[in-house]
Write a structure and sequence with these properties.
15 strands; six-stranded mixed beta sheet; single chain; about 350 residues
């Protein structure tokens, strides 16, 4: 159906005697050859209703289907010489365009896929306070990283436990005043000296803070553009975060090679197999890169489920911070030599726990 939406307006064009639709509704214009019109005569005025399901011209339907859409049209003067058959109203005799009011405002616009919730002032203030706390604590703690970095390169060049301890301290200070983390399955975490591939669903920018608070020495995969950010980028560089250019195939291959080298040296790596943050909280398809690395190196895959971060700080609204708690479920490690089997099993475990918690 050819539908073009117009923005909500408080008044209509001058050829309407009175506004025919609510100012809070969406105006949609529908081509006259795509709808069926039905009319009745009252006091010399013909009013028409329409249906979304077209029928052949010249046929009459006694009732319209319920579609959740209210249809409005201009009143047309009835001319008995113009219509010889009261039951058959040809579409060509009607006005060129019909204006309708939809109960779903904005359904024809791309931005209506995920309607933005009303942002409260308290959430904005909490978001500002969160950024201030994170920035101030990072500024002080980066000094400790810089001082200790030569010793880390000398004695622990791959795991870099000291830097990850500082990162855990920074994440804990940042999130402690704002939300609580409930962790299940801590016994399933491998020891710090055991390399593994960690995978998780991705809902929010807060996922990084939440995962850092676990205190495990795993290397994240991050976009190269973040490394140029002062303080944060410097800390990521010193921690050994693996850079990635998403649209560069060569960079993707180099990233996977770097991850395999780290695993062979005893360090762990962390992947978000969805590749990006979910906009609606649903679990997306998994990419097989992380599981290929695990299969080739023979290390275990540790699935982790994150719930609540997307509601506290939704994707695209990093400047706000809602109230709420975060739940982390650490699943039992899985082993395998086939990337497809590891991918399917890990995704099934995360999806099942998300269904139970939702």
């Amino acid at each position: 159906m050819d539908v073009a939406s117009a923005r909500s307006i408080s008044s209509h064009p001058s050829y309407y005697g009175k506004p025919i639709c609510s100012s809070q509704s969406s105006l949609i214009r529908i081509s006259r050859d795509k709808v069926c019109c039905f009319g009745r005569i009252s006091n010399g005025t013909a009013s028409f209703s329409t249906s979304l399901h077209a029928v052949p011209s010249g046929k009459f339907m006694g009732e319209t289907r319920s579609t959740g859409v209210q249809w409005c049209s201009r009143s047309l003067r009835w001319d008995p010489y113009r219509f010889h058959d009261k039951k058959s109203l040809r579409l060509s005799e009607l006005a060129r365009n019909i204006t309708v009011r939809s109960d779903l405002s904005g359904v024809a616009t791309p931005e209506s896929s995920y309607p933005e919730p009303e942002i409260k002032l308290s959430s904005r203030l909490r978001g500002i306070c969160f950024c201030v706390v994170a920035a101030i604590s990072a500024t002080f703690l980066i000094v400790l990283m810089i001082v200790g970095h030569p010793f880390v390169l000398l004695f622990d060049p791959y795991r870099r436990k000291f830097h990850h301890f500082i990162a855990k301290l920074w994440a804990s200070i940042s999130i402690y005043p704002f939300y609580i983390i409930n962790i299940e399955g801590l016994e399933n975490l491998p020891s710090s000296d055991t390399p593994a591939v960690y995978v998780s669903n991705h809902q929010s920018f807060l996922d990084i803070y939440t995962l850092l608070s676990l205190g495990k020495s795993f290397k994240f995969i991050s976009k190269t553009g973040i490394f140029v950010i002062p303080v944060i980028g410097w800390a990521m560089y010193m921690m050994g975060v693996v850079p990635l250019k998403r649209m560069d195939p060569r960079s993707q291959v180099d990233c996977l090679k770097r991850c395999m080298e780290l695993l062979k040296k005893g360090a762990s790596v962390f992947f978000f197999p969805e590749g990006t943050r979910s906009k609606d909280g649903r679990l997306g398809p998994f990419k097989k890169g992380a599981f290929t690395v695990a299969a080739k190196t023979g290390v275990a895959v540790v699935p982790i489920t994150l719930m609540g971060t997307g509601k506290i700080m939704p994707t695209g609204s990093e400047g706000i911070l809602n109230h709420g708690n975060v739940r982390v479920i650490i699943h039992k490690p899985i082993h395998g030599s086939k990337a497809d089997d590891l991918c399917n099993e890990a995704r099934s475990m995360i999806a099942e726990s998300m269904d139970l918690l939702s």
